[in-house]
Amino acid sequence: MIKRVLIVESDPKIADDMFSLFHSGSERFERERYEPEIAESFTDAVEQAQTVNFHCIIMDADLPEMTGYEAVPIMKTISKNTPIIITTDKNTLELETKAREQNLYYYYVRSSNQSELKLVVGSVFENLEKASLSREVDKAATRPITLKQLRLFQKEEH
Length: 158
Prior knowledge:
5 strands, alpha/beta
């Protein structure tokens, strides 16, 4: 499965670091194949989300046009079921509260060690794979019954 991740980040250094974190060039296994894309603004993110089906969106809390928590409801109208992770360098109680009110997947305070972010994005894809397997089971359960199968359930009349 190709894992499409949209990184919405206006700081080029942070965007490049996140891109490198998820870029598949260094991954050994196909199962870990991420396909990250960068949007430098919310406007760019909206344009990209309208043309590509992303599996996860990582969005900075401080975008050029608006705050990340203001952008979340708009993005959810475009990508209804896409998990959104908000990231920030400067956490405040007010920012965290407003962001979490938007029903985020995760609120991430950046640090020099980005392994937490990679684990969180990994959990997004684990949940997507579980949901996909569940839908496959549901589809199998709702297959129409053939006449031959139906006869097996009918009582024989003597």
